[in-house]
Automatic annotation (TrEMBL):
This is CDP-glycerol--glycerophosphate glycerophosphotransferase. It holds the Pfam family Glyphos_transf. GO terms for molecular function: CDP-glycerol glycerophosphotransferase activity. GO terms for cellular component: membrane.
Length: 373
């Protein structure tokens, strides 16, 4: 069984499901809580999709689950409304971000899973350290990788090949993409208007792409940005998440603590300017692990940092970063191979591991049933 909280999760699961169905001939039941999930439209004899909205029936479904294996991208299993089954189920957590586990997330967000499909060595180190500190039994930490990053790499290459055949766009105006995280301490909620104004005055083409949570939680912030700069010829507003055209057209990203900045730098080999706003912290004891979170340690490798009180320095910092692009590309290629498992083969390996675990747990279930007979 694969569980999806929302339709946005489909692009994490689709390729895995294809591999399980087509290459490994494994049956998959896809349970989603989003009636608009694209997975509900998939048609394959080994695939069954069910929509169970959030609420009582979903809670009951989780409590009584009888699957051998359940795959999720949902954190905090057993901590909130959705609990582990009363039956023996093997839970697999699928990491879909390069960010660390112990600062932005709760300390116990990943404790309930039996297997965790890790993006890179940092996930393994962080999870093993927590297991040791809490006295947990060692779990199955599978060296998975990051299919989204692989997709970004291939799409960037295709975009570049296509762009070379066309007339350059904004050749004299470098394109700056502002795509921060969300919340009261994020760029758009604190200093977005000032930053955009400075960049436009410096001659940059600016694309503002707020996080979807910003649109939901503080729509007035977005409306204010659009009202202030919507008429400027070098300002562009975009509200599409995912690998949209703005990622490929941009020359540089401005962000804060969004893990998407790591994907941008490693996948597109483009620099990032970080506005040094307060860290996003859900685990107040994150320092007890003794490991610097990836979101923090990567910032100086991926570009430059500017303080919110010194935003007037942003245009010059951007110009300097763009001048160093050739060296930056090589650095990102080297870091990518060190930080991410199985680039170009994560889906195949991940599907095989899911199938292996499902077969193993099915044999254990059959043995239990036989012993009770």
């Amino acid at each position: 069984v694969i569980y999806s909280e929302s339709g946005q999760d489909w692009h994490y699961f689709e390729a895995l499901i294809n591999s399980l169905n087509l290459n490994l001939q494994k049956k998959v039941t896809y349970v989603t809580s989003d009636s608009a999930d694209s997975g509900l439209d998939r048609d394959h004899p080994l695939f069954k999709a069910i929509c169970i909205p959030e609420g009582f029936f979903l809670t009951l479904y989780f409590n009584m689950q009888k699957a051998d294996v359940v795959v999720l991208t949902m954190m905090d299993l057993d901590n909130l409304q959705l609990k582990k089954s009363i039956n023996p189920v093997h839970y697999i957590y699928l990491f879909h971000s390069l960010g660390s586990t112990h600062m932005v997330d709760h300390a116990n967000s990943y404790d309930a899973y039996d297997s965790l499909f890790c993006v890179g060595p940092h996930h393994v180190a962080e999870l093993r350290k927590r297991e040791s500190m809490q006295g947990f039994e060692a779990r199955n930490l599978f060296e998975y990788g990051h299919p989204r990053l692989e997709n970004l790499l291939s799409r960037a290459q295709a975009y570049q090949q296509g762009a070379l055949q066309e007339e350059p766009v904004n050749a004299t105006n470098p394109v700056v993409l502002i795509a921060p995280t969300w919340g009261d301490q994020s760029i758009f909620n604190t200093c977005g208007e000032e930053l955009i104004g400075l960049l436009l005055d410096a001659g940059y083409h600016v694309i503002a792409r707020p996080h979807y949570q910003t649109l939901q939680m503080t729509p007035e912030v977005v409306e204010s940005l659009k009202a202030s700069y919507g008429g400027h010829e070098n300002f562009e507003y975009q509200d599409r998440m995912g690998e949209s055209d703005s990622l490929f057209r941009s020359d540089i990203l401005i962000s804060d603590w969004s893990a998407m900045a790591i994907e941008y730098a490693l996948g597109l080999e483009k620099p990032v300017l970080f506005v040094d706003l307060p860290r996003r912290i859900r685990n107040p004891d994150w320092q007890a692990l003794g490991i610097e979170p990836q979101e923090a340690s990567f910032r100086e490798l991926a570009g430059e940092i500017v303080s919110p009180q010194g935003l007037d320095k942003a245009p010059a910092k951007i110009a300097a970063l763009l001048e160093r692009r050739p060296d930056f590309r090589q650095t990102m290629r080297e870091l990518r191979s060190q930080m991410v498992f199985n680039i170009s083969s994560s889906i195949e390996l991940g599907a095989r591991e899911i199938a292996r675990l499902a077969d193993e747990k099915a044999l254990e279930r059959q043995a239990r049933e036989k012993s009770r007979a």
